[in-house]
Write a structure and sequence with these properties.
The chain has 154 residues and is an alpha/beta fold. It is built from six helices and four strands; from the N terminus they run E-H-E-H-H-E-H-E-H-H.
Length: 154
Amino acid sequence: MPERILFVCTGNTCRSPMAEAIARSHLQRLGRTDLVVESAGIAAVDGEDASDGALVVTLEAGQDLSGHRARMLTPALIDGASLILAMGPRHLEQVRALGGGDRAHLLTAYAQSDPKAHAVADPFGGDLDTYRATYAELKAAVLAALERWQPSAR
């Protein structure tokens, strides 16, 4: 059974789907089939599309979020994840409250091995340049996190 990495934000329409797309694309380039990447939100409306900004910037990077549908974070998603990467402290608190334990980390803190790292700012409602900046930050953090993570480290 493949290991699972779960990205978590608020509505599962911007940051966590972009992080998921970045990770999926990178793993495909590497030919890695041992990892499954997913995303969810602590206040998601199940079935909602990715935001327009997230759709545009991921398309610019050669990824497609047109099939993404938001989903609410559940204990089952947490239980099935080997590594859970949250976009902000509030998301991390919720993940831990639902049983994420030591598998849950702030994405930037995990990527940088720095417990004082900042949250990834929410681009929701911002212009395309805001989304592009968030995408660039996510790409650096996601690639560093994937480099750091060792499967079966639970």
